[in-house]
Amino acid sequence: MYRVGMSMCEMSFEEKSFNELAKNEIFDIEISRPRYEDYENFDFCGVKKAAENNGINIWSFHLPFAPFELIDVSVADKEKRNTAVELLSDLIKKCGSIGVDKFVVHPSGEPISETERLERLKCSRESLSKLADAAERFNATICVEDLPRTCLGNCAEEMKFLIEEDERLKICFDTNHITADKPENVIRELKNKIVTLHVSDFDFVDEKHWIPGDGKINWSEVVKALKDIKYNGVWMYEVGFQSCSGKLTLSDFKENAEKFCSKIPS
Asked: CB–CB of 222/187 below 8 Å?
């Protein structure tokens, strides 16, 4: 069974949160807040200490992606693009200094029209390499996340384009973002470039971030595909605490992981 992790997108970073995670045998987390200003007074060292006190590993850090007008590494305007890279690089430095070695990044905001798409892909690819430079100073990896709708990286082909010119770039595969194909097929397309996950379910129409089992993903096929590519990272939930059937607790996530990924197909 994969190690079970939780995105902290809906949890506080107080000591009690880490204590509850440990009680439920969830020992890996992703630090995650969507907006850049969420990190203005963030106590990186304090969070590291609270995690260590409870035997929790900070597996990854999700770089902020909002507001789009400030944080979008794909914009054509070079000055705005460089500003976004500088802001994210500063966060990489702060989080890299406490030992985090995987940084998840969105390759764009949205909406993006078809007429500007190729240029935006090229701009994003350039920015991602600059972020890889910043991460390399801490022996860390930039993990480019696949995205939904008109965002860049909404299919396997675009994900390959974004990372193909820089071997340092890897992938965070979000199971509920790409609607053009089944997640197990995308996993096999992207192969061992996938070094971390965002696990959640959906309806194949748009992202939902439901707990596995509430949507239409065939999870046995997903786990089989992960085995085929020899994925050995964390089963990282990126799910809210409100499900289709009611409010979730951390114990529900542990039970869900045991149900959907405890028996890796042979």
From this structure: yes
**Can you tell me the distance from the alpha carbon of 183 to that of 227, in angstroms, rounded to the nearest whole number?**
14
Which residues pair with residue 30 across a beta bridge? 7, 60
Please identify every stretch of the chain with a pLDDT value under 70, giving residue numbers as ranges. Answer: 263-266
Beta bridge mates, 103? 61, 142
The DSSP secondary-structure symbol of 32 reads: E
What are 242's strand-pairing partners?
247
Between helix 117-136 and helix 156-163 the angle, nearest 10°, is: 50
pLDDT in tens, 127-167: 999 999 999 999 999 999 999 999 999 999 999 999 999 99
User: 60 and 102 in contact (C-beta within 8 Å)?
Assistant: yes
In angstroms, rounded to a whole number, what is the distance separating the alpha carbons of residues 82 and 75? 9
Predicted local distance difference test score (pLDDT) of residue 264: 58
Peptide bond into 107 cis (omega under 30): no
- DSSP code string of 234-262: -EEE---SEETTEE--HHHHHHHHHHHHS
Helices (H), the chain: 15-23, 44-53, 78-96, 117-136, 156-163, 183-190, 219-228, 250-261
Strands 170-174, 194-198: pairing is: parallel
Residue found under tokens 């786990």: 223
What digits encode the pLDDT tens for the residues 215-233?
999 999 999 999 999 999 9
Spatial separation of the C-alpha atoms in residues 85 and 127, rounded to whole Å: 7
- Strands in 57-62's sheet, in edge-to-edge order, are 194-198, 170-174, 141-145, 102-105, 57-62, 28-32, 4-7, 235-237
